Structures
1.
Amino acid sequence: MGWWCVPDALASLPRVPLALHPTPLHPLDRLRRHLGGPEKVPRLLIKRDDLNGVALGGNKLRKLEYLLGDALAQNADTLITAGAAQSNHCRQTAGVGAMTGMETHLCLRGPAPETHTGNLILDDWLGAILHFTDPGTDVSAAMEPLAAALAARGRRPYRIPIGGSNAVGSVGYVTAAQELALQCLEADHIVVATGSGGTQAGLEVGVRRAGLAAKIIGIGVAEPDTTSWNADVANLANAVAARLADPGFSLTPADIECPMDWMGPHYAAPTPACDAAIRLLARTEGVFLDPVYSGKAFAALLDLVRQARFSPRETVVFWHTGGSPALFATGH
């Protein structure tokens, strides 16, 4: 079953338009010249999902359009999600809650800090109710007793997984791939950060159904839930395809590229390569990345260019997933 069947399946899914689409696709010509010019460096483009218009933007908004649609279809009046203290997903969920009038609860990893910085300031301004946890607590599991307590008070809570990365939310990046196909059908590679897996999984489905030849390189920036991101992304992509009633779609871990070489010692750990990548893009193109996701993915892109992974005749799209508020929590 091909892409021509998917729009009908997409149209049947509940969705609430939230973000500004299409997001811009910009050339990175000054950076390309800095790295060696067209004779040595592929054409570089950046897909600006950091500019999609709600609560300082980011990739989770595409997922939240479908997650919120599902929540409203279930008559929910309260959103619950979880993540790290500086979670971009939590900040965007808080923004969606504010703009739709839904009470929003965030289960955040670790104890409450003495001072709020970065995304935590924005979470508070957006009216989210913050629930900090004891060290070692599984914040995903922490949503369950919170949901039960809210239900006991008469609320109708809807739980959103970390990163919005399930078969419901990841559909947002199937439509994103269709959007990219209308902007740049000749894309040969897409480089994107992979944290909770949903963005890459949706793109894996979307590029194949949109007729794009682009190979996706998901740069792992977090520890996977199981043995590898390759397995997690393949499983989630297959679940997305099943949601779109495409029984002929099937990926295996061997179909997924998700190297972990640029994560550093652990999730959110600063790395010199990430810092250098953030500075280079800012100083050549005036674009800010974040230190947890997009900065590490861009450091990977720079290394791959230097390693001649790409031909100068190819087109490489870097998918900017947002996250710049975390820059104001790094201390430098």
Note: The two ends are 51 Å apart (CA to CA).
2.
Amino acid sequence: MSNLVDLHLHSLFSDGVLTPTQLVAEAAAIGLRAIALADHDNVDGIPEALAAGLEQGVEVITAVELSVIWEDLNDIHLLGYAFDHENAALQRALGEFRDFRAGRSERILSNINQRLVAEGRRPLAFKDVRERAGGTIGRPHIGQALLAAGYVSDMEGAFVRYLVPCNEPKRYFPLQEAIDLIHKAGGCTVLAHPVFINVSEARLAELLDDFIAAGLDGLEAHCSGTGNDGVDRYITMARRKNLIVTGGSDFHQPVKGGVVMGSGRGNLKIPYRCVEEIRAAAEWHK
């Protein structure tokens, strides 16, 4: 086993395709010491992941990826780590979010079905989409149903032809609410994949100051989508602002040419000290 980790993985409980058990088995196979299952706005897969981790000898950190909004920026992603996944307030907030998301998915599917009928095709059944999801239903699950029905040849086609034009508005957690929710559950908070926030690094530094004032604990410096120089710049930025450093591939599914667990797009080597920093930061909120 190496001293490397991957602290940003998704299962079929959000928009991944593998079960938590399969994710842990893959992590064990490639020698990762620790992982975090960070499904979108959902912690339902954590008990299975924890059990599999004990069986496979892989340390599993409780995690979640929350969709948050700040001023004019929406869909910023906030990672929560090392919290009590059974916390009542957290479970209630995520349950409300899940209910809204399910309703949104139904509205998207209704829009798509109208388009399918207009094309002379048989509409999709919401029951089938829900069974594919296993947990929180997202657009990728509808995309998978479109693929299974033979209406598109790949996921990109599903988004271009149906999911984007038939989209419905999302719901987001206000940043302060999301940070408080994780802290009150005994965890710490980390800004996810900063490279995908469409701002300059100077603006990112300003945003981090605002987020730190709201209670942000860390930055996901090791992330897919940026090269080694970018990772180094994010680490430097985090250290200057006394933020913890974490990292993860944001792995969703095994696909040729895609993001790979543990290494992202080939350049990630995330050290175990990220886990130690998470544990230490979370202790402040216990």
Note: The domain at 101-163 is CATH 1.10.150 (DNA polymerase; domain 1).
3.
Amino acid sequence: MITEGKARIEIPEKVFYNPRMKFCRDADMEVFRRLESRSYLDALAASGVRGIRAHLEAGFENVEFNDISKRACETIERNLRLNGIDALVYNRDASALMREKSYHHIDIDPFGSPSEFIDSASKSALRFLSITATDTSALCGSSPMSGLRKYGAYAEKTEYYHETGLRMLIGKIVREMTKYDKYPEVLISWTKEHYYRVHMRLRKSSRGAGKVYEKVGYILHCQKCMRREWKNVFHTPEIFCECGTEYRMYGPLWLGELHDREFVSSLSKDGETGRLFQRIEEEIPAITHYEIHEVCRSLKISPPPIADVINALRDAGYAASRTRFSGTSFKTDADIHEIRRIISDISPQHRVSHRP
């Protein structure tokens, strides 16, 4: 017997339950409380813990569960009785079920890649779509061919690889969704440990589905000087960086917002999940971020405190913030030349070398 949130569940042998994802489910409940989900499908439910918590903690009245495993479905039914919930449980292929029925809110949380379910989920979801991906090597660039096969996008591992992965996942969802004259507004997204999570509000409009491609395109990355540029699919990208090095081109990716500031501001900032929401709310909407240790390694200096870097960038007139991705990363609208100059000026070595 396990207690998680307000739910009590039993986990028999061979039914999947990941205690490391409790943080994600805790964060989901805070997000779900701000959504008005009239019908919710936990499409790959396993033990049913997320859907049960959604009913008990977020007030989702019409919750349905599905899993392709008969043993999992039997477990979900027992856990529903244990928590006093009456709900439908399907023992179906998730994609086939979503082709047959529409739901106000679809939630896809697979063991691995969600790519095979995104098309059907995009067709079925009427208002909200929540998706998790745990195949981080395909998304972050560690396995470029896997990323191409599953997500139709190319990336290599860079110092901002978690952001690339999140943008690759959202880009895949956008491209599937627009086939049905839908487009998303990203409410919130994050990465933690081994997974990516995104919550979206859906809109229905053929015009909007076309216009959303202004936010889909490519990141151009210079491996020599660390310069980054980005172009949407309507513009021809440059081949060479201004330093003369040929750009590496990653994408197609989502170039738009990774969260809705107004929505995130409504979330509770208490506890561990609240600290994540606070970082997300404060993060500026720049595309890609910088790791202080990577910049300083290129300069062959010791890294100054991240807070000093951000304050120095702001004092120089640039926008700057910490990020949701790591405690040593920052975002800014300054270009790489200004970033390197400012960090060099405030580095410990610089202060020592200019001591009278």
Note: The chain has two domains: 2-205, 289-353.
